[in-house]
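This follows on from our talk about sequence and fold. Can you supply me with one protein entry, sequence and fold together? Could you add the entry underneath, on a fresh line?
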Amino acid sequence: MNRKSLQIIDLSSPLDVCVKEPYPAEIVYETHNQGAEQAAALLGLKAGDFPDSQAWAVETVKLTTHTGTHVDAPWHYAAKTAGEKSRTIDELPLEWFYGNGVLFDFSDRAAGYEITVTDLETQLSEMNYELQPYDIVLVRTDADKRLFENDYAVSHAGVSAEATRWLIQQGIKVMGTDGWGWDIPLPMQAADYKQNPRDGVLWAAHFVGKEAEYCQIEKLANLEKLPKRTGFTVAVFPVKITGASAGWARPVAIFE
């Protein structure tokens, strides 16, 4: 490996108690002195037996599997996919999570804009690129720039159900966004539904997962740092949590 020609770009948002998402992480930071007390109690020693009465630093984190940058599994969308039990995050093939990256840029669209199939096709034409099975699709909205602002969770453009279905039909198994969610912001969907109750409004893009398997990456970051929109590799391996609907991840874009 020629590391001089290797560039790795972090595409993750931090786990931080100050992030303004509906279900933020709770993090308790314990000092090296507290670590010595813990170690002493565990080993039948005194804290002073450790150099300077210090041992390990430890953090205790309480969060959902959908807090921070994470990968949604089919089980998140519904109990069944195409009539079969939906797979959980630990049951999915690792090959899905390493592939060629393709960046779609909707950073110029307003919060609540719903991305269409035509939007995707237009940008592919501009890129002179045709999607390949197992490409990893990234959707830039720049919502991550509002991570610590109160409107973060409602500040992104979202992907329509039709566009999600179309991506799956192209062989895409993993698609991601820097928004809080893949759909348009849920309060906007709810407001639409309250005015005109009907099927196909609430969580519409997620529910495409009832028809066919796919995974979403949510709460990506730094997509504006990608120097080009194709011709790079994405690695986004989710944490293996038994029976879970999602797993945290630290996705990266790899350029050589």
